Amino acid sequence: MSTVAAYAAPAPKAPLERTTIERREVGPHDVLIDIRFAGICHSDIHQVNEGWGEAIFPMVPGHEIAGVVVAAGSEVTRHAVGDRVGVGCMVDSCRECEFCLRGLEQYCANGNTMTYNGVDRNGDVTYGGYSKQIVVDENYVVRIPDALPLDVAAPLLCAGITVYSPLRHWGVAPGKKVAVVGLGGLGHMGVKIAAALGAEVTVLSQSLRKKDDGLKLGAHDYRSTGDPATFTELAGEFDVVLSTVSAPLDFGAYLGLLKTDGAIVNVGAPEEPISLNLFALLGGRKTLAGSMIGGIAETQEMLDFCAEHGLGAEIELIDADQINTAYDRVQSSDVRYRFVIDATTI
Ligand SMILES: [Zn+2]
Ligand SMILES: [Zn+2]
Fold first, then answer.
1. CATH of the domain at 222
2. Distance 155 CA to ligand 1 centre (A)
3. Which of 8, 141, 194, 283 lies 20 to 30 angstroms, CA to CA, from 59?
4. Which tens digits make up the pLDDT trace of 97-120?
5. Do β-strands 338-342 and 30-40 pair in parallel, antiparallel, or remain unpaired?
6. Distance 256 CA to ligand 2 centre (A)
């Protein structure tokens, strides 16, 4: 065991404070990572606030981890001391079910182990990336290519893969038209990645406040969803609509934006159930779908793709003592586009 500094929420909805946690001994298949940067994901805030159900406290959030390997177990073959690596939302899964065997560990039939607010095989509570070091099984650690600076790479481990996986699954490529709903942490990476995949990208946002940013990030068009003309002018335009917002949308209206065989994919999750007239799916054989992060191999593929295309997240780097302020700002949508904690300040 080793004792490391961390920032933890001691109780539900409580401000995060500096503390120490125990990390397990580096086992034969483990690597010890010196965390350099940790992104703040909106889901960290949901979990601290128990917005998604009962959680485990004290909680050390953080599943957008970028760092350097400083020790490796005797059986480790995938990573070596000095390697630049990342850890995302999962640190283990059953490795035996049909989904794990297909590289879809995020949909493990036996439940994967979340990077924090989870319980690992040893029965230990998992603690995330708002800390100095973490011990992770090498199979759940990915390599960060040299072309990607670690600070802008950190948010790719959740925000990047969350949008990359569905864009690939639903065949986004040159000649396809994609709408990205919401230009936040997820949405801004959705625009960058969809444009790099060769698609024509439109941002659909409540207002035109971030239009200049959206066009700079690679969008070809930027429309306000507050303007009813958007839904008539863009009717039947898109192959894929990627919704990154957690506000409940009028899905009937958004389905009207799809071409035949088009799909709306949700990566944001409204807390409230939605109501939908299913006739909106029948004409045009449309799909209303969801997607959750991505598998380990696909996360590596995403990082390699982002390195090749020079895509990192747009970030605001903060010191650890600014985490609580950053939480407030995320909740009031006042971030362009991801807060990243400089873990050396923890
Ligand atoms: Zn996340
Ligand atoms: Zn499994």
1. 3.40.50.720
2. 8
3. 141
4. 999 999 999 999 999 999 999 999
5. antiparallel
6. 37
